[in-house]
Amino acid sequence: MGVVTGLFARKVIEAAGPGLDRVSLFHDLGLNPDDPPTVKTMVADVDYYAFLERLARLVEDPTGFPLRVGQSMQCDDYGAFGLAWKTAPTLRGSLERAVRYARLLTSVAEYEVHPHPKGAFFLLHREGVRTLGMRLSNEATLASATSIMRQVSPDPVIPLAVHCKHSAPDDIAPHHAYFGCEMVFGSDKDGVLLDHATLERSNRLGDPAIAQFLEPHLQSELTAVAGETSFEQTLLRRISDRLSDGAPRATEMARDMGMSERTLQRRLSDEGTSYQAVLEKARRRLAEGLLTQTGHSLAEIAFLTGFSEQSAFSRAFARWTGRTPAAYRATFDG
Question: How far separated are the first and last CA of the chain, in Å rounded?
């Protein structure tokens, strides 16, 4: 299970507007509304996505809702991370800091500054099933990044285009109004395309000395966060990387991680799980992602998730979800 900073959840509640029981909403996510906002308080990603879906059904303008969430984000909300963004010499430098230190905000998303002939894409990479909650979260993230770019730049920041992997909502007028550029839904990427001039523009408060001073502090925080990653999460990622070669055995993974199988099993037991449970979780997550985000055949997905036969994969998937792989894929088409 991944995590997302509780700061995002606070902004979601604020953007939902009046008329809702704010205290109950905070408590639903295990947050105290009286605590000072901080990026260090985390909530489970699945709870956050479900929370977004729930509020989207309650607000009057669900299409514009994730854009309001993103627009409400302020650079100063992010503490040292925000200060590093604000004091980077150029906008490109700000984006590169976001790439480097995104783990301070979430364990389920990564960023990339990817070259393009017209400039560069600021890309969002987030794995998993594209539920409504994840789609809303992705839009809010792109809106947030754009909002903060506009806060630190002395001149208006108008992207060349904004891309989203998911299909377009019924009305995209709010997106055009907010981003001020072409919207590309059903894309092969989630990201904001910026031109060269915008990327090399000096930030309003750009200060190389302060930015350099913050680097060790942010790196220290990043190291601390990385150290908090559970053993299960580490193993989950390693298993996922090896599934296309067949389901790895516990002895193989223990050897790969430099420990005995007994130690591996004990550490998993301490976290309330087992090797078989982690293996099943890795297979299921990968299968769900491949079914909803790719055009791979069922036979190919069976192979990529470590099954020797499609029939065995189909039986396992039905056990995990209560649906056949084909029925599951049909649910997310469009």
Answer: 26
Token pair belonging to 238: 């390693």
Positive or negative torsion for Cα 81, 82, 88, 91: positive
- Residue 281 CA to residue 238 CA, distance in Å, equals 12
How many other CB atoms are found less than 10 A from the CB of residue 75? 20
Contact 38, 78 (CB under 8 A): no
Domain edges within the chain: 64-226, 231-332
Report how far residue 145's alpha carbon sits from residue 137's, in angstroms, rounded to the nearest whole number.
12
Residue 15's Cα: distance from chain center in Å?
Answer: 20
Helix axes 45-56, 6-16, angle to 10 degrees: 10
Contact partners, residue 129, CB within 8 Å, separation at least 6: 288, 289, 292, 332
**Topology of 231-332 in CATH?**
Arc Repressor Mutant, subunit A (1.10.10)
Give the tens place of pLDDT for each residue, 44-95.
888 888 889 888 888 888 899 999 999 998 888 877 778 778 888 899 999 9
